[in-house]
Amino acid sequence: MTYTTASLLGVVVALVVDLAVLRTRLVTTRRWWLSYVIVVVFQLLTNGWLTGRRIVTYDPAATIGDGQVVLLGHGRIAYAPVEDLGFGFALVLLTCVLWTWWGRRERDGDRDG
Questions:
Q1: Please, are residues 87 and 43 in contact by the beta-carbon 8 Å criterion?
Q2: Distant-in-sequence contacts of 104-107, Cβ < 8 A, 24+ apart
Q3: Any residues with CB less than 8 A from the CB of 55 and at least 6 apart, and which?
Q4: Tell me: the pLDDT tens digits for 1-31?
Q5: Which residues pair with 80 in a beta bridge?
Q6: Beta strands 76-77 and 72-73: pairing type?
Q7: The whole model's pTM is what?
Q8: 78 neighbors 44 (Cβ within 8 angstroms)
Q9: What is the DSSP code string of 21-86?
């Protein structure tokens, strides 16, 4: 499986869990997107520093682009492969979905007791 495929799969799974499985529907809220903008800025800064300095490298055959490490272009944003944005989105969304879902369960459980 390529990094691109894994990234797309991660995004789809995160969206399905949010919208259909746990039904927290975070991606339908303005609060989620405003929060995510803050996260993605720091993700780009961190990924850019790590990949721009070649501390982290990627197999060019597994990503979009030709493997050139550039600020923008060749399948990269802030030096990192665009797939990193998909993985970051999926990880942050799943974390927030689970946090929200567990919080609701705990809150609703307190009402029953």
A1: no
A2: 104/24
A3: 49
A4: 899 999 999 999 999 999 999 999 999 999 9
A5: 77
A6: antiparallel
A7: 0.88
A8: yes
A9: IS---GGGSHHHHHHHHHHHHHHHHHHHHHHHTTSS---GGGSSS-S---SEETTEETTEETHHHH
| Residues 41/39/11/49 CA torsion (nearest 10 deg) | 50
Q: Note the Cα 38 to chain centre separation in Å.
A: 13
Answer yes or no: is 61 within a domain. Answer: yes
- The total of structural domains in the chain comes to 1
Q: Give the strand order in the sheet containing 76-77.
A: 72-73, 76-77, 80-81
Report the C-alpha gap between 110 and 113 in whole angstroms: 5
Task: Judge whether 59 lies within some domain.
Answer: yes
Q: Which domain holds residue 39?
A: 3-103
Does the residue 112 lie in any domain? Answer: no
Residue 28 resides in a domain: yes
Most distant CA pair in the chain, distance:
59
